[in-house]
Amino acid sequence: MTNRLPQKASSTISMLQDLAKLANYSLMDTLNCDPDATKNGDDHAPRQVFTGHYVPVKPTPIIDPEYVAHSKNFFSELGFADSMAESSDFVRMFSGDISQVPEPMRKVGWATGYALSIYGTEYIQQCPFQTGNGYGDGRAVSVLEAVINGRRWEMQLKGGGRAPYCRGADGRAVLRSSIREFLAQEHMHALGVPTSRCLSLYVSKTEKVKRPWYSEGSRSENPDMLVSEAVAISTRVAPSFIRVGQLELFARRTRKNEHPKALEELEKIVLHLIDREYANVVNKQFTTPDKLILLAREFRSRLTSLVANWIRVGFCQGNFNSDNCAVGGFTLDYGPFGFCDVFNPHYQPWTGGGYHFSFMNQPSAAQSNFDMFCSSLRPLLASHQDYLLKLDEIQSGFSKVMEAQMEKMWAAKLGLSSLKTASHKALCSALLSELGTLMMQTPVDYTIFFRELSSVPNDIGPLKKSFYNGAAHDTTPKEIDKRWAAWLAKWKTLLSSSSEETSRQMKRVNPKYILREWFVVPAYQQAAVGNYSLIRELQDVMTQPYEEQSKDVEDKYYRLKPPEFFEVGGLSHLSCSS
Ligand SMILES: Nc1ncnc2c1ncn2[C@@H]1O[C@H](COP(=O)(O)OP(=O)(O)OP(=O)(O)O)[C@@H](O)[C@H]1O
Ligand SMILES: [Mg+2]
C-alpha cells in the first residue's frame, strides 16, 4: 500500500532502434491466429471471428499527430530518454503508423476477442451478430511486446483505429477521454494501486469525430448534444491485457463445443496468461491442474487487494464487468471511472453503472468477475474431480478473503493496523461503523477527512475542513459536532503508537491529492485549444499524491468540491466514456 518510487533503469534507450532490439512477441508467436484473418493486418471491417486468440491488425494512424504528453516517471522506469517522446520515429509509431518501424519490430499489430458478462450474466446482445463472435478490442491495437530490464511489457494503442471487433464504430478515442485515462493511470500508480501504465499521448491536429456530450452546465443525466472532438491515441502498457472476459470467451466456446480446437484454445490462453502474469508464483514444472489452482489462489489475492486499494483511495471503476477485469489483477479501462469527493457508499460516476458497480459495492462486483474466472477454468479440470473441489473451495473463500483485505485496509486508514486481539478488532469495527454513519450524515469529503485525521488532531476543528455543510444531514450541526468529538476521543483511545508515528503511517495510506473530475475538466478543455500546461501541472501534482507539496498546490488542489459543480453533466456524472 505504500507509494512505489519509480526505479531508474540501468541503460538508456534513446532511439526506436534501441527499443526494437528488445522486441519479443510472445502472444503472436505462441497463441493461435484467426485463420480467416488477412495476414497483412488490413482487417478493419466488423466481422465474426470464430477461432484463434488474436487477429493481426494494422493500426490506423491519426492524421497530423501532435505531442501532448508522456509519462516521465514511466519513461524513466523503462530507461527511455525523455527526448524520445518527441522524436519523429517514436511519434510516428505511437500515433499509429507502424509501417516504418525498424526490425525486428513488426509492421502488423493485433487485437483480441473477449466475452462480456455483467454481474455474472453472460451477454451476447452487445455483439452485432448476436453470437459473441464480434466482441473484443474494437479500438485497442497492440503494437509491441518487449522485454525491458527483465520485465515483459505489451504496448497497446487505445484509439488505434478499427479492428474486426469495432461493431461498426470508428475505432477512435477522443482527446478528452484520452487525457482522463492518461492522467488517471499514472496517478493510480503513484497511489500504489496496481494499474496499466500510460506511455504517451498524441492528438491529431486535423482529424475529428463526433461524440455525444453535455452542453455547458447541463444537469441532464445523459448527454444533450453532439460535439466534434479531436481524435487521440494514448499508449497503455501492461505485462498483458488478458481480461476475465477473454478466458470466458474460450470457455463458452468449449462448453458449447463450438469447434474442435475450443478446449485446446482455452488451455493455451490460460497457460499463456500464467507465463505473462504469474511466472514468479507458478512453477513451470507443475502439472496443468496444479498450475490452475495456484493461479486461482493468486488471482483471488490480487483481485481482493486491488479492490480494497480502490476503496482506500476513493476510486470507483464504474463498470467492473468481466471485460474490464484484467486477470493480472490490475486496474484496466479508465472510462466511466471517478474519484469520490463527498463520501457516499453508492457513489457511481457512470450513469449506466447503477448500484451494482458503485463505490462500496466493488467487492461484490469483483466477486462476480472471480466467479466467472473460476467457471472459465472448470472445463480444463473436468477429469480431475479433486482439483475441481479445490477450485470450489478457493471460489467460495472469496468473500472471506475480501473481508479480510477490507479490514486490513480500514485499519491502515485509521492508523490501527497494530490492533491484533479479537476485542480490539471488534472495537475497531464498531468505530468504523459509527464513522460510516457520521461521514454520510455530515457529509464529508472522503479524501480530506482521512488526510486531516492523519494529523491526529486534538479536537474536531481540522476535521471540519472536510465537512460539506448543510447538504444532507437531518441532525443539527451542534449534535453532529458532539458526536464527532465523541468519535474522535474513542478513536484516540485505540491508538497504540505515538501521535507522530501514527500520523506518519496514516499519511502513507491516506493521499492528500486525488484526481477529482473537476480538476480534469479544465485540463482537457484547455488542451482542446492547444494549451497543455494544465495537463503537465496535474501530472506533477498527481504523481506525488502523498506529499504535502507547496502552499499554492494545496490552495488549488486540496479543496472541497465547489457547490456549483454538483449534479453537472461531465463534472459529477458521465454517460459516455469514449
Ligand atoms: N469508438 C469505438 N470504436 C470501436 N470500438 C469501440 C469504440 N468505443 C468502444 N469500443 C469497444 O467497445 C467495447 C466496450 O467499450 P468500453 O467503453 O469498455 O471501451 P474501451 O474504453 O475502449 O475499453 P478498454 O479500455 O476496456 O479497452 C470495447 O471492447 C471497446 O473496444
Ligand atoms: Mg472496456
> How many helix segments?
18
How would you spell out the order of helices and strands? HHEEHHEEEEEEHEEHHHEEHHHHHHHHHH
The secondary structure category is alpha+beta
Let me know the number of strands.
12
Low-confidence stretches: none
* Biggest sheet overview: 6 strands, antiparallel
Distance between the termini: 30 Å
Shape: globular
EC number: 2.7.7.-, 2.7.7.108
InterPro entries: SelO
Protein name: Protein nucleotidyltransferase YdiU
GO molecular function, one term: ATP binding
Structural commentary:
It is a single chain. A hairpin with a 2-residue loop joins strand 4 and strand 5. The mean pLDDT is 95. The chain has 18 helices and twelve strands. It has three domains: 228 residues, no CATH class; 148 residues, no CATH class; 100 residues, no CATH class. With 578 residues, the protein is an alpha+beta fold. Strands 2, 6, 7, 8, 9 and 10 form a six-stranded antiparallel β-sheet that branches. Strands 1-3 form a two-stranded antiparallel sheet. It is 39% helix and 13% strand. The protein starts with 15 loop residues before the first helix and ends in a 21-residue tail after the last helix. Helix 5 runs parallel beside helix 17 and helix 8 runs parallel beside helix 10. The site of magnesium ion (MG) has 3 residues, from loops.
